[in-house]
User: Which sequence fits this backbone?
């Protein structure tokens, strides 16, 4: 049978993410592909105790249904974390989500009619494009340099795109490039959003994993007109398997996202919300994050050192101040997708994410995203060395 | 600030479900409102052991990211459960969802362009209407009698609605009426779906909680052309707090729902999928369900007995063969919403769901849905008695 689908499905197609997650599961491949945190650093003992206590608690509340917008105590705790980071808010300003990915879907569904324009960094997070696609947006893109989205180019883009409705950004240690939006540009972004009546979607999964440099204020904390939807997540700082993220937004926006939450899946898992909440009550999340920072900073150094040692000199890599990724630039003629398929996977037994997939409009073939958080230091060295050999042997790519 | 929202948000409005979940949380109210299972019957000890074992398992896989369409072993296990129930399928035919609610959202997004028609039972599950609304459907409705959706009326409705795309049904112990679709009507429904090129969305959260009568084949097992999307859930037979549901559908439909899963929230919680999977490996779900059946059958009897004893004789209640709900019919002039607001809540301290909310097109005020699974037998007796007194004292309503 062939069925007739809704128009919104026209551009909803299989993506590289699914295939790459599958490749990452082959234990004979060293994958720098996914955005996985290091599983050896998961707070296993604490979560074990916590799940025991919430499941055994009288009344069974952690196993029952819960309010759609999230457990009230968890919402308060998230507001405290946000406020301690300079983004003042209360539990009423928090909507608990099924990972921050769900916030990307909701923001697009809430704001985008078919043909409306979403402005993204170029390149940008592939998962966001996947989330936006069923809302049938068009895209306008802003190039990224070492200080993030080039907001000085934004005004011309906004003038040329009267249907622009939403600016999507990962301001801290951006996915895929690892760069951070400077303070001057953060302020300029807010100023332009006000002037052009746009909503800003601020996605911050890596924000707290900073290795060096100074913490910068969130866009939400600089928001003067309630135009910023801030998305946060425990996936990278606690464990991804909980699937707990959140949105912070002004009441009007948050209420509508809350209605989409009821429609989309009723609620996030009560057990997982209760577990995250008890973790925050009982343990020091900052101390746990400090451990992650140290470990990932070391891994980043190991990867960049190995790249410098093993890769041809024409290949450059960003040196991020935090997060999970470095972004590689190969010579103009290099096709990172073809190289992965024909050489890296079958010969070097190494995976990464070819860069082309992160460009919403005009793919550029000579980039790749490398994750340094998931693999051990030994695997990083082995994988990069193997890839270096293959690159030297295939310079013509 | 007031913002401009996408057109799909026009009819996305706060619903009774949110308010009622809030009321149910007030411990001084006896709520027959929500569709909560009995928390005293949750498999607390088993889940405690299971979470301990999956969190402590070497490698931390249960806390890490997992494939978007679900853990492969869980998909196989669900296929085995389905096959044992007469719906033959393999793990490849299964998509794990964030509760079956997510399947309602995905089916509408996949199939419904604005103005396309969804055919529902009248009355129907409110949560489905909430899920469908952002896809901007119109509705056509089929009355329900003691044998479920009156499929003999369906052909005329299909002829009158050329844009009909989807038939939504809860065939077993329907929400809100508790009635079950007869075998003759199941076959007629499939036959008409084939003839009119429709997709059937079969929602079965209560299917395994049968008190009496004979198990009937799922619509999916009667599906001759791959037109049925079957939704199942562990919420009522295990615990709601896991938020694990699933879809079974033909490859083309399932693949597209899988793409929406990646877009919507990346994946269901790994921890919760791993927990459900280990429960199925280690314990006898059928034995657990047998306990639930006995308990809920007794509670149903307690509620119907109490209604017969305490309510005015003009009020009738359905006697369901399974599930969680009975459906009350009051005299034509009675307004169950007004009575709840003005008498039941403030005086009798009892909540239910006024029936008007379950009718997609023309609300009828003289109905109410009563849940008998959540409250203790003592509370059922106390609550129904208090409501009976209030009804007798307010016959003019």
Assistant:
């Amino acid at each position: 049978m062939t069925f007739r689908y809704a128009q919104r499905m026209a551009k909803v197609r299989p993506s590289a993410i699914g295939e790459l997650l599958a490749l990452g599961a082959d234990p004979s491949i060293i994958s720098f592909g996914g955005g996985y945190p290091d599983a050896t650093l998961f707070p296993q003992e604490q979560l074990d105790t916590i799940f025991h206590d919430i499941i055994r608690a009288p009344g069974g509340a952690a196993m029952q249904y819960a309010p759609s917008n999230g457990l009230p105590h968890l919402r308060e705790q998230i507001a405290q974390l946000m406020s301690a980071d300079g983004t003042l808010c209360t539990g009423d300003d928090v909507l608990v989500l099924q990972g921050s990915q769900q916030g990307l879907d909701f923001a697009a569904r809430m704001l985008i009619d078919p043909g409306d324009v979403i402005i993204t960094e170029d390149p940008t997070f592939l998962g966001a494009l996947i989330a936006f696609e069923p809302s049938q947006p068009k895209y306008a893109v802003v190039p990224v340099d070492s200080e993030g989205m080039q907001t000085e180019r934004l005004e011309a883009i906004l003038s040329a795109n009267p249907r622009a409705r939403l600016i999507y950004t990962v301001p801290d240690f951006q996915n895929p490039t690892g760069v951070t939006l400077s303070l001057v540009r953060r302020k300029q972004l807010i100023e332009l959003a006000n002037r052009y009546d746009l909503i800003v979607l601020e996605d911050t999964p890596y924000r707290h994993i900073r290795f060096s440099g100074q913490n910068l204020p969130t866009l939400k904390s600089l928001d003067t007109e309630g135009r910023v939807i801030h998305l946060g997540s425990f996936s990278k700082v606690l464990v991804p398997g909980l699937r707990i993220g959140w949105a912070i937004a002004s009441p009007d926006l948050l209420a509508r996202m809350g209605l989409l939450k009821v429609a989309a899946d009723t609620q996030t898992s009560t057990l997982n919300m209760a577990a995250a909440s008890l973790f925050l009550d009982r343990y020091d999340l900052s101390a746990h994050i400090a451990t992650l920072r140290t470990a990932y900073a070391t891994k980043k150094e190991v990867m960049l050192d190995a790249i410098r040692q093993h890769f041809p000199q024409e290949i450059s890599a960003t040196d991020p101040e935090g997060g999970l990724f470095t972004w590689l630039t190969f010579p103009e003629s290099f096709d990172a997708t073809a190289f992965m398929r024909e050489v890296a996977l079958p010969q070097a037994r190494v995976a990464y994410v070819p860069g082309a997939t992160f460009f919403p409009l005009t793919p550029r073939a000579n980039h790749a995203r490398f994750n340094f958080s998931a693999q051990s230091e030994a695997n990083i060295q082995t994988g990069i060395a193997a890839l270096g050999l293959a690159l030297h042997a295939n310079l013509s790519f």
Remarks:
- Residues 285-310 of chain B form the longest helix (26 residues).
- DSSP finds 13 helices and 14 strands in chain B.
- The mean pLDDT of chain B is 95.
